[in-house]
Amino acid sequence: MLKIKRAYESAETGDGARFLVDRLWPRGIRKEKLEMKAWLKDVAPSPALRKWFSHDPARWVEFQ
To answer: Which residues contact 43 (CB under 8 A, 6 or more apart)?
Structure first.
């Protein structure tokens, strides 16, 4: 099963392996504090796609 969790949420025992999927590092979090297996920035949306989406709910279906 795959679960999605924000990087700002604390790791819990049942989380399993954690991966960061984003091109930008989360603000205010040290790399040592974020308990993760790998940072997968190459599979995250491209900068052009992020700019186009611009957190517009009307574009969510196409963004996915």
So the answer is: 21
CA-wise closest residue to 8 among 44, 56, 18 = 18
The CA-based diameter of the chain, rounded to the nearest angstrom, is 37
Give the integer Cα–Cα distance in Å for 3 and 20: 12
Strand residues in 1-64 grouped as ranges (E): 19-20, 38-39
Mean pLDDT, consecutive 10-residue segments, the chain of 64 residues? 89 90 93 90 94 95 92
Whole-model pTM: value is 0.76
Closest CA to 33 of 14, 20, 22: 20
